Amino acid sequence: MAGLDLGTAASRYVQHLQRPDLHLHHQPEPEDHEVSNNRHGQDDDGSHQALDLVNGSHSGDLVIARRPRGRPPGSKNKPKPPVIVTRESANTLGAYLLEVGSGCDVFDCVANYARRRQRGVCILSGSGTVTNVSIRQPAAAGAVVTLHGRFEILSLSGSFLPPPAPPGATSLTIFLAGGQGQVVGGNVVGELMAVIS
Questions:
Q1: DSSP output for 46-64
Q2: What span, in angstroms and rounded, lies between the C-alpha atoms of 20 and 31?
Q3: Pair 184, 175: CB distance under 8 Å
Q4: Backbone phi, psi, residue 177, to 5°
Q5: How many Å apart are CA 133 and CA 151, to the nearest integer?
Q6: Whether the Cβ atoms of residue 142 and residue 190 lie closer than 8 Å to each other
Q7: Is 106-195 a CATH 3.30.1330.80 domain?
Q8: What is residue 119's DSSP assignment?
Q9: Which of 20, 85, 112, 195 has CB 3.0 to 4.6 Å from 129, enough for a Cys bridge?
Q10: Main-chain phi, psi angles of 25, to 5 degrees
């Protein structure tokens, strides 16, 4: 090939290898039973060695030393100390039990509580007896049904956000059992009067 002098490059490489001050240092080989175990993947603790070139500190010697493979000892994942909360954040979730008095509107009571506290309220469950329920059933398109009489709450869930949240962010869903075993449910759109029995 034109312009490439292989003789000079090769001779420099050979001279480098033939330097009299080059020493090879080897660590003792493991015994036969350790070698056979490591071949089968047992007792593999990452202690296999790789060669590494190191300059000698005093005489400028080039030393080939073995460098351990894998993680250094003691670098495994160590357990971290637990996080201790010293004070409660303003946005921490909290569980509260709200009792609505007889003759009060459940929807208004929860909405006023959210407005006074300036906090969002999520209702997970409710129990008790209500009367004069106005609900919008999902099956009937836009039809509002007003139920008269006493009904036991089977399920009550919803969310209330304080102003300036949009009106659609506040909703209350209820399922009720009537006296003859009928079950009705939907979104509360009017009064939901609590009754203490």
A1: S--EEEEEEE-SSS--EEE
A2: 32
A3: yes
A4: -110, 130
A5: 9
A6: no
A7: yes
A8: -
A9: 195
A10: -115, 125
Q: Where are the alpha helices (DSSP H) in 104-196?
A: 106-117
Dist CA 85 CA 138 (whole Å)? 44
Q: Which residue matches tokens 């080989």?
A: 29
CB contact at 8 A, 68 and 49 = yes
Please give the Cα distance from 156 to 167 (Å, whole number). Answer: 19
Cα 65 → chain centroid: 45
88: which 2 tokens? 């409660």
The one-letter code for the residue type at 51 is L
Give which of 72, 73, 68 is closest to 52, Cα–Cα: 68
Does the structure show a pLDDT above 50 at 38? no
Separation CA 46–CA 129 (nearest Å)? 69
3-state helix, strand, coil in the chain (%, to 5): 20, 30, 50
DSSP lists the bridge partners of residue 186 as: 174
75-115 confidence digits (pLDDT tens): 777 788 888 877 777 777 888 888 999 999 999 999 899 88
